[in-house]
Design a protein that fits this description.
Blueprint (H helix, E strand, L loop, with lengths): L1 H15 L3 H14 L8 H4 L2 H40 L6 H22 L8 H44 L7 H9 L3 H20 L12 H13 L3 H15 L8 H6 L5 H17 L12 H6 L6 H26 L5 H16 L16 E6 L5 H13 L7 E6 L9 E5 L3 H7 L4 E5 L6 H10 L28 E2 L7 H14 L6 H12 L3 E3 L2 E2 L15 E13 L2 E10 L6 H11 L2 H9 L3 H8 L1
Parallel strand pairs: 1-2, 1-3, 3-4, 5-8, 7-9
Antiparallel strand pairs: 6-7, 8-9
């Protein structure tokens, strides 16, 4: 249940967090230029309403759609939310955007899955463009007539509820839920998923809102850290507290104080009471911020204050929260003995890993000593997962030579798999294929924070005395899979679809695949990106298209200016067609090239195909 809540909260915050810069820009423009702002300017203040009513909902809906349905889902979300915005013109539709974005992404994702393998050759572009346009239009109409008015009603009810709490002096009690939820890593979800939409509506009407202050106040956590600094009996904890104070108070990284609470869970009382006092103070003084304070540092907190006494009142609320939190936490710290910060940090890391998709066995302190086999899985088990497995195998082989690292298709994960690594969009299929395995979900196979978490997990324990054989070091009979004619240098492409098409046509012209394999490469990209990180993409066909591969082969296309693959650019595109494991040697060489900056530079700047062949064959 806790993990499900964490994941839901992480999903909510993931729609808002990429757009915090836009919220801050809107907040600054509001604070500076409205009639009651620091430097009133009627013409510049004209940007406030369009940004709030149109720009921010469109950005949030795009992010939500993209999370679920990739780039096409993002575009669908942006189209759909306009119906919601126009259908409820008197209210900022941030919450409506959080609904329409993911719904739009889900619809286009399901459509793409239904069309996989069924799209007529030559009609791909037509169908892709018209499907987004038609579904987007339908959702916009539904949003206009249904979702917009419905969400307006919800906002009215929520705002009225907040007003009741404020008028009856009950709003401070929200801290009873806020502070424990923060320790469960729901801080961003609560702040940006719930409080920000309500606060934005209030700020539009009143010029400020107390709702921006409920979660972001750095005072409660500061009091806890100061108590440990002053009274902790553990030398490591005591010496770490000053640095944590700086990171928390000036940097706004509230997560830094969570381990200090996990050491003594009863200490959660301190930030709860401190925040209650601060919220009560802000309520009776009518203090509020004009925009979201993110991150929750004292700098961001004060930068969003109102003109006049707002800065002083805001600062006093922080001091009150920190002082009361310190007074309550101090005797608890004094009586707590020598509890270890390292153990609390490990507990925090495990909790955070769960919210990111790395589920650590709760029955042991570290699950790493139970890991024998890690499986990297993608749709076809041919390209993305092969490179990911090779790179991760090379990364851990010195510390954990006993761990087997292999790759396979997501539907064929073996029963003895301990950890399965898949892209997020394939997680459901992976769970069905390997219900016994710990699941790690990632964005790309070469450079992803979840892989760093996994590395830390499996290298935390020493290798077993009896090492298992190195994984997937399958040496097939030596074949020439990369030929000079398969290397194209100095290419240009405006989109990833063009680059994938070029790679597929080259594979076809060299006799590696049937022509239908090219369409399967485009379909594979819609399922989950083949961008690997570090400027490399390896497009290949779907698992259903393996029958159209005549023989194993690899082609290399160099794009000096880069080709957009989502938010990243690929400079080297490796088109892959594989029969069995014959292509793994070259993928291993590619991974080796990634470790050598000189080799990578040679591949990126090569003017002669022979240079590429020398490094990869």
């Amino acid at each position: 249940m806790k993990n499900a809540v964490q994941r839901f909260g992480k999903f909510l915050s993931a729609m808002v967090m990429p757009n915090i810069g836009a919220f801050i820009a809107w907040g600054f423009i509001t604070a500076l230029f409205i009639a009651t702002g620091w430097i009133p300017n009627e013409r510049l203040a004209g940007m406030v309403s369009p940004m709030l009513n149109y720009l921010l909902p469109v950005l949030v809906a795009y992010s939500g759609g993209r999370l679920v349905g990739g780039d096409r889902g993002g575009i669908m979300g942006a189209i759909a939310v306009l119906g919601v915005v126009v259908g409820a013109p008197d209210y900022p539709m941030l919450m409506g955007a959080m609904i329409m974005g993911p719904v739009a992404g889900l619809i286009i994702k399901k459509f793409d899955q239904a069309m996989e393998g069924n799209m007529p050759a030559g009609f791909e572009m037509l169908i892709n463009n018209f499907s987004v346009g038609i579904f987007g239009m339908i959702l916009a109409i539904i949003g206009f007539y249904l979702i917009g008015p419905f969400m307006a009603g919800i906002l009215v009810v929520l705002t009225a509820g907040v007003d009741v709490l404020v008028n009856h002096g009950l709003l401070p009690l929200a801290a009873i839920f806020i502070e424990p939820a923060k320790v469960l890593f729901l801080n961003n979800a609560i702040n940006h998923g719930i409080f920000t939409p309500i606060a934005t509506l209030q700020a539009q009407e009143a010029g400020k809102s107390i709702m921006y202050m409920l979660e972001a106040n750095p005072g409660p956590g500061l009091g806890v850290l100061l108590a440990y600094w002053a009274f902790s009996k553990d030398k490591v904890t005591k010496s770490s507290a000053p640095g944590a104070v700086i990171i928390h108070f000036l940097g706004g990284i509230h997560e830094i104080y969570f381990p200090y609470i996990l050491m003594n869970p009863v200490i959660i009382i301190a930030p709860i009471v401190g925040n209650i006092a601060a919220i009560f103070f802000y309520t009776i003084t009518g203090t509020g911020l004009v925009g979201p304070a993110s991150p929750g540092s004292i700098i961001a907190f004060l930068s969003m204050t109102t003109k006049g006494t707002g800065t002083v009142m805001t600062l006093l609320g922080v001091v009150i929260a920190a002082g009361i939190s310190f007074l309550i936490a101090s005797p608890i710290v004094k009586m707590s003995g020598n509890k270890s910060l390292e153990e609390a940090q490990a507990k925090k890391d495990a909790m955070k890993a769960e919210s990111k998709g790395i589920a650590v066995d709760p029955g042991v302190k570290k699950a790493s000593d139970k890991v024998a086999k890690i499986v990297f899985a993608c749709d076809a088990g041919m390209g993305s997962s092969a490179m990911g497995a090779t790179k991760f195998r090379n990364r851990i082989k010195a510390a954990r030579p006993d761990i087997t690292v292999i790759n396979t298709s997501v539907d064929n994960i073996p029963a003895d798999c301990d950890i399965a690594v898949v892209q997020g969009i394939l997680a459901d299929r992976a769970r069905k294929s390997a219900p016994q395995a710990q699941l790690v979900t990632i964005g790309n196979f070469l450079a992803d924070p979840a892989l760093d978490e996994l590395y830390n997990q499996v290298t935390a324990a020493p290798a077993a005395e009896t090492a298992a054989p190195a994984a997937a070091e399958v040496k097939a009979e030596k074949k020439t899979l990369l030929v000079k004619e398969g290397v194209k240098l100095g290419q240009k492409a405006a989109t990833k679809e063009e680059a994938i098409q070029a790679a597929g046509e080259l594979l076809y012209s060299l006799g590696y695949v049937e022509k239908s394999y090219i369409a399967a490469m485009q379909e594979r990209e819609k399922l989950a990106t083949t961008y690997m990180g570090m400027g490399i993409a390896i497009p290949h066909g779907t698992s259903q298209a393996k029958g159209t591969v005549k023989k194993s082969g690899i082609v290399v296309l160099q794009y000096p200016d880069g080709v957009p693959f989502g938010d990243e650019k690929a400079n080297l595109v490796f088109g892959i067609a594989g029969v069995g494991d014959e292509h793994l040697d070259i993928l291993s060489n590619i991974c080796g090239a990634l470790e050598d900056e000189d080799v990578m530079n040679d591949l990126l700047t090569a003017k002669d195909a022979g240079v590429v062949l020398k490094h990869l064959q």
